Amino acid sequence: MPERKRLTLKDLAAEIDVHYSTVSRVMNPATRHLVAQDVAARILEVAEARGFRPNRIAAGLRTQRSGLVGVVLPDIANPVFPPILAGIESVLAQKGYVPIVVNAGTDKSRQRFIIDQMIGRQVEGLVLATAEREDAVLDYCIRQHIPVVTVNRGEETGRVSCVVSDNLLAMRLTVDHLVGLGHRHIAHIAGPAALSTGFLRREGFVQAVRRHRLRRDAWHVIEAASYSREAGKLACAQLLEAFPAVTAIAAGNDLVAMGCYDLLRERGLDCPADISVVGHNDMPFADALTPPLTTVRIAVHEMGEEAARLLLRQIDKPGSDAVTVQLTPQLIVRGSTAAPRDDAP
Amino acid sequence: MPERKRLTLKDLAAEIDVHYSTVSRVMNPATRHLVAQDVAARILEVAEARGFRPNRIAAGLRTQRSGLVGVVLPDIANPVFPPILAGIESVLAQKGYVPIVVNAGTDKSRQRFIIDQMIGRQVEGLVLATAEREDAVLDYCIRQHIPVVTVNRGEETGRVSCVVSDNLLAMRLTVDHLVGLGHRHIAHIAGPAALSTGFLRREGFVQAVRRHRLRRDAWHVIEAASYSREAGKLACAQLLEAFPAVTAIAAGNDLVAMGCYDLLRERGLDCPADISVVGHNDMPFADALTPPLTTVRIAVHEMGEEAARLLLRQIDKPGSDAVTVQLTPQLIVRGSTAAPRDDAP
DNA sequence: CTGAAAGCGCTTACAG
DNA sequence: CTGAAAGCGCTTACAG
Q1: What percent of chain B has pLDDT over 90?
Q2: Does B292 touch chain A (CB under 8 A)?
Q3: Which residue intervals define the domain HTH lacI-type in the entry (chains A, B) (predicted)?
Q4: Closest chain B residue to the Cα of A69, Cα to Cα
Q5: β-strand partners of B297
Q6: Which of A33, A131, A339, B176 is the most buried (most CB within 10 A)?
Q7: Domain A64-165+300-328 is classified in which CATH homologous superfamily?
Q8: How confident is the model over B330-339, as pLDDT tens digits?
Q9: Which CATH number fits domain B167-298: 3.40.50.2300, 3.40.1280.10, 1.10.10.10, 3.40.250.10?
Q10: Does residue A2 sit at the B interface (CB-CB below 8 Å)?
Q11: Model confidence at A77: pLDDT above 90
């Protein structure tokens, strides 16, 4: 069963007895009006009947537009990324673009290799979910003059467009909530400082506790090695050691918060009775944990949509300014936060 | 800042003063040996220095190979799919292929539209995670003679290669476990019968209870409208109505199991004390639910890998036979299953 | 309104 | 070993 050769403009033109350029004009809605109604109708009819689909790759070669956008993810298994990807894909689809998705990991040289491949495939732009605060790969993309936008994580220098959630606000909402409940010994388990999310949430935490005029010995920050459950558990253990008075933890994200759950359970501590925990992201099923996780919901799907929109704009007008779109997060109060015990220090 | 035009073979050839076909030969490792060592070295050097990356699209047009594979997902937000996608992507990458990923939903006409687009983009093959037991879209792909493999869900007629988990075995493990614990009134909340997973797990459940010689009034099957938490909750309510003696539920998947959790909690019933629940998939964080979910772990990443391997084989040898690869699942016993109460009916 | 031609950036038989 | 040429399937100025 040999694969039947795909039809071409010429095949179709021969069948209808017109020049293939005429078929081309008809197949493209934008140029369809250039040909006589009846001819167009006949061509369309035959095209439909024979299931003709013009070769977009050949067209792209000619028009210098691939209709491809590269999406570079650090880890698609992390539950933040699928909805972001879905958002990207949905607006791309509306404009006839399609994403090429690669799981690039965290290794910068591998990321660069992948981006080179994508450029070789003529992607018209790139969405990076892998950006760090200082990112050689991002520098590389900029040098290549390829349209780029970062999503979820921002970038320091303002050279590229970014779509992020407001991390300062997130921590302010978190700390306000905790202080409002009566907590006076609050800690933050930060994500990696190399990532804008880790850096800014930490920054936001510090700003927030200062705003509440908490004394320096009433709050504490510790950094987790990564945004993972394991690293969160480890950091939580160190935190309890370093800051035993703690009654509330603002975790860098939900996975880190889960790590806290794991450790507290192991130590026989009750959440929220002994220690309150707040996450960040509101990942799927955060409500199904025990206790249901109080967390900051970020607009993941919108983040993807907006990133795609920004990128498309960048592609349309190459010179346009880089902008940062900051989406507003929302605190979702559930069962992992409560007032501290009366006998809390 | 105009986008610097990308380099071409001709640009490079002009710079080095050789014919561009020579540059072409050097850029492709497979034909590199055709040119003199020193010339090749010089070309490679300049190519590296100038950051030349051959246009894969143009090459693909010439060689009739796009290096693209289409991946059609019903819903990337469903936690089964990201690891499958990761698996697909990883083996594709090894062979220089790249996936085009689209969230196609469940609507068949939209799926077909998307597949048409993908074919227009010259994908060399398709991985469908959207297959139903009788699937018009799959029929369409077969008529187009495009290499296809289905993943996670199988297909009835054996016309295409499938990679699935052994659903009959999964239910046998589940029922064995439940019966072993002493349960004598067991129910299954099945997924949609239109999907192979829903159909076969139901089948497996029935076979398993028969093997244990449970009397017909000692087991019950009810079908959920979809594989979702909400549908699971609804079905669970109906189940309690229809089969009040039930002490153990084999849920169609983990989301359905979560729906059961939701309903049981609402009714003030304890899991596992009043009713045991078993899921299917072992989705991320199934262990972090309360109680931790006993479930069947399927080899998701391997499933993706294997699907990609099968597809690549199909692409290499178009005529080759369709095969079904069945991966072996594993029961993961956690806290949602226990012996029934002594006073259970 | 339609056709004929050039060309997008490659690969690869064919000469030499 | 290297060059010159044809051609992959399109789009689009240019004629007529």
Answers
A1: 84
A2: no
A3: 7-63
A4: B100
A5: B281, B330
A6: A131
A7: Response regulator (3.40.50.2300)
A8: 999 999 999 9
A9: 3.40.50.2300
A10: yes
A11: no
